[in-house]
Structure formats: structure tokens, C-alpha cells
Amino acid sequence: MSAKDIKALVKRLRRQGWEAVVSGSGHWKLTSPDGERMTCSMSPSDRHAYANACSDARKLGAEV
User: Which domains does the chain have, with CATH numbers?
Assistant: First the structure.
């Protein structure tokens, strides 16, 4: 998957009330409406990064 896919995921999470901030290290810092946090790379080098980010978000209550 590509950075476009990660960006689309972040956009969907924002619509669900998540906060998204870009860190200085090139990662998204995402906070759920419940205050739970997760991070994901803005430009993933691992082909499983998108699936892992979706899985992490689902575990924190997101509808992905």
C-alpha cells in the first residue's frame, strides 16, 4: 500500500472524531475520541503497514 492509502485512512478516522497530528519524525499521531493513541508512518516502507494501521484502529474502536 502507499502513502495515499494511509492518508485516506487518516481522513476516515478524522471523520469519526479522531485527532491526527504529524510528528517531526514523519509519523501520524492519532488519538481516538476515547483518548486512546496510535501511530503510523506517513510513507510506509512495509507492505503490511496499511493493514496493520487498519487493525490497530479497529482495536481502538474505529470503523475502518
Answer: 3-59 (3.30.920)
pTM of the model: 0.91
Query: Residue 37, exposed/middle/buried by CB under 10 A (0-12, 13-18, 19+)?
Result: exposed
Sheet with strand 19-22: strands edge to edge: 19-22, 27-31, 37-41
Which spans in the chain are helix H? 3-15, 49-59
Residue range 33-60, pLDDT digits in tens = 999 999 999 988 888 999 999 999 999 9
